[in-house]
Amino acid sequence: MSADLLKEFGENYLLYFSHDSCSVCTVLKPKVEEMISGLFPKLNFHYIDIKDFPELAANYGVFTVPVVLVFFEKKEVIRKTRSFSVKELQESIERYYNLLFD
Question: Could you tell me the pTM of the whole model?
Answer without folding.
Answer: 0.91
